[in-house]
Amino acid sequence: MASTYSSTLNLELQTTGENSGTWGTITNNNLQKLESAIKGYVSVAIASTSDSLTASDGSTTDEQSNAIIKLTGTLTGNTTMQCEAVENWYIVDNAATMGTYTLGFKPAGGTATGLVAASKHLLYTDGSTMFDVLDDAGNITANGTLDVAGDVNFNGGEFVFNQAGADLDFTIEGNTATHLIFCDAGNDRVGINSSSPSKTLHVVGGIKNESGTVNFDGGLFVFNEAGADYDFRIEGDADTHLFFTNADNDRVGIGVSSPAAKMEIDQSSTTGAIPVLELDQADVDQPFIKFDGDSASDTSKNITTDTSIGDLTGYIRINVEGTDRWLAFYATS
User: Fold this and answer.
1) What is the mean pLDDT of residues 300-316?
2) Which of 72, 64, 62, 63 minimizes the C-alpha distance to 93?
3) Contact present, 116 and 132 (Cβ < 8 Å)
4) What count of Cα atoms within 13 Å lies in the side-chain half-sphere of residue 310?
């Protein structure tokens, strides 16, 4: 009875009394194929867009019997490399020059798995589908540095960095920014474009809130604590300087971009039908306005007791309890 061959490694299965004089050679070939299946390495140059690993019964030179396969060559189109449609596993080193093309590895007639350029894959097949073990791995623990050249997707569960609460910083770099987002674990602070945040959140650069509400529910809000020449501006629906602080000369403007006094209010609309300032005093035994200054008997100070200061010059329109009144003013003598 003639020899038969195993389906996975193509080992020659000899029958009793067969192969007189060559039994030892055939056995050694089988042992060499077993060795290749455990620790063997072969480099295979991809020759076409539909290529196959060589497989031969009893031979020690077939490619697919090796545990480790390095793929080389330059792809000329989307390419598939295949092995026999039998159960097997491989470590594949994809060293092929891929360009813009794809490279798949599959059992003959089955479903391929995609190979990543310049990457190594741990694969197995059930004879109909090729599986990449790390595509669907369970828990993975890395005690050293984990470098990822491709995308990282978190499609389920939580992502927790530094769950042990150690002094381990976290940094995300931008195209040019070295600390686009930086978590300073030692000080429990977060920096945006800052490598040494001085507050719980330290932002270097602008902040834009496209929509929604920003709430400050506790603590202080301090703008320009360093005392630099940084203006502060709030826009209205149509007013570009609804509220404006001019840091350069320490002035405040409402409706004005260049306040000429410590505070200047400009109601510039000719159709606004509103007063410039409305005062509502609920504490009925207290004044609406309090003036503190220096008093004199003449006009040399900002408060005078001189009752003959000058002639009545005109009136300023005011409103008292809903009724328009006129407040007299006098010329300076």
Assistant:
1) 89
2) 72
3) no
4) 12
